[in-house]
Amino acid sequence: MDIYTTFAIPILIATLWLxxxxxxxxxxxxxxNKRICFLIAHPxxxxxxxxxxxxxxxxxxxxxxxKILCLSNGDADxxxxxxxxxxxxxxxxxxxxxxxxxxxLDSSEFRDGMDTRWDGGKIVEVLREAFGGQTSKQRDxxxxxxxxxxxxxxxxxxxxxxxxPNHIALYHGARAWLDGLMKGKEGWRCPVELHTLTSTSILxxxxxxxxxxxxxxxxFVGGLQASPRRDGAGGRxxxxxxxxxxxxxxxxxxxxxxxxxxxxxxxWGWITFxxxxxxxxxxxQSIV
Length: 288
Known about the structure:
Elements: H1 3-26, E1 35-40, H2 45-48, H3 51-57, E2 65-70, H4 80-93, E3 102-104, H5 120-131, E4 152-156, H6 160-163, H7 165-181, E5 193-197, H8 202-205, H9 211-221, E6 238-242, H10 245-258, H11 265-273, E7 279-285
Parallel strand pairs: 1-2, 1-4, 2-3, 4-5
Antiparallel strand pairs: 5-7, 6-7
Helix pairs in contact: 4-10, 5-7
């Protein structure tokens, strides 16, 4: 390998990263002036999985109001109270406005653990209490439009990205809440858009920003990126967020500075090579 090739390869890699990040930012923002909630399972999910989307959607020019609802304080190792504070600190680094925009539950119903199965009905109860919706015993004789106190709910998809059962439970609980919100509301549009983080193969999971062109290509082939498909409600079906170098470092800072209790050796590999530290593609789920 000659000296020109030695210098050309890192330059090409850097250019590719900056170009894909620019394309992502130059398209019309998928959400503006929206009330958005990120539904996560554990403190550090917001940094390890959702930092590109959070950094983009909390940008002041979007006019969004972003909140985080975390169903567990991650007390598996007895560090629940420490991790609650770490989540608040991380949220501030990722652009949330105030401490009041972060809600962390400490409930026996939602214990952190790979062997713990969360009850979808309990997740529905939490979402209903936090954001509105009728119980199965309530009736709506006037047939009013369904309402909620948020416009967008973002969470994991049915595969949970890492396969964690707590992540997967959030998807099913979120869908069940919205299905209940729309029960008996035929003809009305669901007031809340549900967007889920796309799970990928293990190979793509660890190629960092190099996955961005691949994600764009898949979106283009599916008619989602160059000319975003829209569903019956008029909303964009897919939203792509690619962090630039500064945003990537900001996401890393949320882990290394805020979530210090979780920085074991293997997490250094994740925040360095993990594609979710750089690329988030959110898919809108159909709610009828």
